[in-house]
TrEMBL record:
Disulfide bonds join 153-163, 263-300. Residues 1-21 form the signal peptide. GO terms for molecular function: chitinase activity. The keyword NAD does not apply. Gene3D superfamilies: 1.10.530.10, Endochitinase, domain 2. Residues 64-290 form the Glycoside hydrolase family 19 catalytic domain. GO terms for biological process: carbohydrate metabolic process; cell wall macromolecule catabolic process; chitin catabolic process. Transmembrane segments: none annotated. This is Chitinase-like protein 1.
Length: 316
């Protein structure tokens, strides 16, 4: 898809969101082979069982987004004016028919949105211990890596995802993407030429959110679950998973997304930072951190990583 067309589509979708996302939409309903399917218009379209549930804008609205990311437009932030609620909700509309934030009852759906945004906030934060508002109020401070130390080009993929001369594949997006092969794979999935134009992710907040939600909903490797599936309970651990102390819940989402860069390393700062953002967002959304679950569900400190990352893995 040409970037100009993508930008036009995103803009039109956002205009619809501005007018409609704050009001509950009554779904269209039909029964197919004894199963109830729904279509909720722009936000959850395509006759899905998940569209019969609460959609994200029913329980997560602009003021809550502003609360979660309160300092993102502070003058010292590095992506002032870039991120907003409508970009998020427009991106999420692509995945709500697949269960993103719509899988089950309202509580679980709210927890999934908090979990996803907890990862996003942690990975885009410029907060620190004595920062105004506290270190957890600074999510979405960045939309790209500010001073990349290299161009993240791996020639091993020169036949499948060859690097474009003069292009840098440093971190960009809501869950930052690194390396040519990750830009290539993500671009293929979304039908956007990110391999030749990775800068699209710093030009379009809807696309930056969509790539992150796609990563959340999609297994990193074959024969592994997605972060979405391990969080909402779609994934059933095997005997080997149980021996590796991998259980459904937030902790294993970190294992899926970051592997040994975060998990299996004990009580690490990188793991605790992600968890802290999740708990903080649960509180701000009115769910409460007491709903996060037990310690073994919340952390991955003792989990065996799904796989050991090569040196060219996505940055943690």
């Amino acid at each position: 898809m040409e970037y100009s067309k993508w930008l036009l589509f995103s803009t039109m979708a956002m205009m619809l969101a501005v007018g409609k996302c704050q009001e509950s939409v009554k779904p269209l309903v039909k029964i197919v082979k004894g199963k109830k399917l729904c279509d909720k218009g722009w936000e959850c379209k395509g006759w899905s069982k998940y569209c019969c549930n609460h959609t994200i804008s029913d329980y997560f609205q602009t003021y809550q987004f502003e609360n979660l990311f309160a300092k993102r437009n502070t003058p010292v932030a590095h992506a002032v004016g870039f991120w907003d609620y409508h970009s998020f909700i427009t991106a999420a509309a692509h995945y709500q028919p697949l269960g993103f934030g719509t899988t089950s009852e309202k509580l679980l759906n709210m927890k999934e949105v908090a979990a996803f945004l907890g990862h996003v906030g942690s990975k885009t934060s410029c907060g620190y211990g004595v920062a105004t508002g506290g270190p957890l109020a600074w999510g979405l401070c960045y939309n790209k890596e500010m001073s990349p130390s290299k161009v993240y080009c791996d020639d091993y993929y020169k036949y499948t995802y060859p690097c474009t001369p003069g292009v840098s594949y440093h971190g960009r997006g809501a869950l930052p993407i690194y390396w040519n092969y990750n830009y290539g794979e993500t671009g293929d999935a979304l039908k956007v030429d990110l391999l030749n134009h990775p800068e699209y992710l710093e030009d379009n907040a809807t696309l930056a959110f969509q790539t992150a939600i796609w990563r959340w909903m999609t297994p990193v490797k074959k024969h592994q679950p997605s972060a979405h599936d391990v969080f909402v309970g779609n994934w059933k651990p095997t005997k080997n998973d149980t021996l590796a102390k991998r259980v459904p819940g937030f902790g294993t989402t970190m294992n899926v997304l970051y592997g040994d860069q975060v998990c299996g390393q004990g009580d690490s700062d990188s793991m605790n930072n992600i968890i802290s953002h999740y708990l903080y967002y649960l509180d701000l959304m009115g769910v409460g951190r007491e709903e996060a679950g037990s310690h073994d569900v919340l952390t991955c400190e003792e989990q065996e990583p799904f796989s050991v990352s090569p040196s060219s893995a996505t940055s943690s």
